Structures are given as C-alpha cells and as structure tokens.
C-alpha cells in the first residue's frame, strides 16, 4: 500500500517592488506591484483584503499583480497576502505615511472674510448667496483661509458704526480690517435684473482698501441656480489667485528677482512663501524659511511677462533668503 503524499506546507513566494517597509510620500496615491508564485497553485493574492487574482487565473503557479492605492493623510497600513490552494499563506505588511507639504498647510493661505451682502433689501437672497460662498470657500482643498462667519459680523459692524449699506463702499474694508484679522474681504452686491439676478464681488485688501480682483455672475433664479452660480463665482476668484511656484534668481538685500511673471498668473501684490527645497521637482519635500516661528514672505512689486521683482516683507528676514530658494503663492 502506497504511503499518503505529505501535505503541502510550503508557503507561496511573494516579491514586491515600489514600496519600502516604511514609505513617506506627499501624493494622494501610491503604487504597488509584484509577483506571487507557488508550485501547488495560487488561490488568492490580496491587498488589504481585496483579492486581485482573477477567477480565470485560479491555480496558476505564478502571477503578476499591481494596485494603485488611495491614501489617507497620515499613516496608512498596507497588507499584501498570497495564499495557495493548500491554505498556506505569506503576508507582507507596509506602512505608507502620506504627509502634506508644509507650504500647502491651510494656515498659510490668504485669510479672507465674507461680510453680509448688499443692499440690505436683498434679504434672503443675500443670506443664501453668502452661505453658498462660504460653503465653496471651505471645500477641500481650500484656496483661502475663511475667517468670521455669520455670528461675528453683526458685532463687528456695530463696533465700527457701519450699516449694511456702508459695505457697498470698498473703503469699509479698512475699518473692518481693524477688527477682523483677514487680509482680504470678499465684498459682494446683488443686482436684481428683469429676470434673475447678478452677484458682483470685489476682493478688497484690508490693509489699504485696494480692489485686488473683481468679477460677477448671473443667476436666472434665486433658488438652486443661485447656489451654483455663486459657487462658480468663488471658483472665478480662486482662478484669479493661482497657486504658482517659482525660483529666486537673484537676491539683493530685501529685493529678489523671480523666474515667474504675468504669463504664469502672477499678479501685482501677490504674496509668496519662501521655501528651501532640493529642486523644483521636489518642492513638496521643502521646508519653509522661517524668521522665528513665522514664515518668510515676499510680495510682488513689479511684474514682467516672464519674471518679477519682489520685496521680502518679513522684518529682518532678507539675510535668510538666498538665490536658488523657491517661492509658492499664499
């Protein structure tokens, strides 16, 4: 009588590429690929419990697999397992840490406030438009850092002896800026048309009352279409303040020359963070230049089509800024 064949106790081989045991990335995705093999035939190859082995390949002795992994911010645990038809299993575990580049932290974005819309007679349409603006401004990834919501404006207006009608004048931003720590106010006005309405918005600097951007949008009605139109208006504003990056070509005291200009979307008085990075392609790995605990900033003074002159506005920071440093729009 023949002896029974010994049970298969040999685990599958599992070879992976693309990830280290601990990998740090700045992207929303990571890529994993590899091969699994077993002389007795594979039963499954899984990544975090999802079987990647197609039914037609069940029992194959060797297979290649690949998976694009969507990552959460912070620590992501990845488990890759290969199992054969005898129940033997090989498991590899990885940690992928998704960091947010320091210069993309929302706390470094330009701070804005949205006062109540004018005229006072716009009533519920003004309230609805304001809420739609704020909803779009807080949608991730946020281009601006939104301050003061509804509960704060009544107090601010009262303290500055301003009425809703006064908000039609951009110079009101100077007075509001004394109490609201926002660098810009999005001051909007509703115009009733024969059919529908138009929302006109001005982005006003609280430092000097200058209008930095202006645009409008039309809505055929005051219901859902108004929400969509106002969301589109905020998108137009965001496009008017593009998140561009560049390199410092020359540094002379408090003045620096950048390799980006009007053709790249840079506007007058644009503000930039100064970054130390290995290269432009590796900007995400860079660290902010700091004076004390505050990021060093540069503000555009003069624009050319493909270059610009900027001033280091952070006090006593000009000696820290060097040629070859990089900048990223606030």
Strand content: 35-45%
CATH superfamily of the largest domain: ABC-type transport auxiliary lipoprotein component
Estimate nothing, just give the exact number of structural domains.
3
CATH topology of the largest domain: Rossmann fold
Q: What's the average pLDDT?
A: 91
Q: Helix and strand string, N-terminal first? A: EEEEEEEEEHEHHEEEHEEEEEEEEE
CATH architecture of the largest domain: 3-Layer(aba) Sandwich
Helix content: 10-25%
CATH class of the largest domain: Alpha Beta
* Oligomer class: single chain
**Low-confidence parts:** none
> What structural category do the secondary elements indicate?
mainly beta
Account of the protein in words:
The mean pLDDT is about 90. This protein is mostly beta strands and about 325 residues long. It has 3 domains: about 15-100, Immunoglobulins (Immunoglobulin-like); about 105-240, ABC-type transport auxiliary lipoprotein component (Rossmann fold, 3-Layer(aba) Sandwich); about 245-330, FlgT, C-terminal domain (Thrombin, subunit H, Beta Barrel). A 6-stranded antiparallel beta barrel has the order 14-15-21-20-16-22. A 5-stranded mixed beta sheet has the order 2-8-7-4-5, with no helix packed on it. The protein has a 5-stranded mixed beta sheet with strand order 10-9-11-12-13. The protein is built from 4 helices and 22 strands.
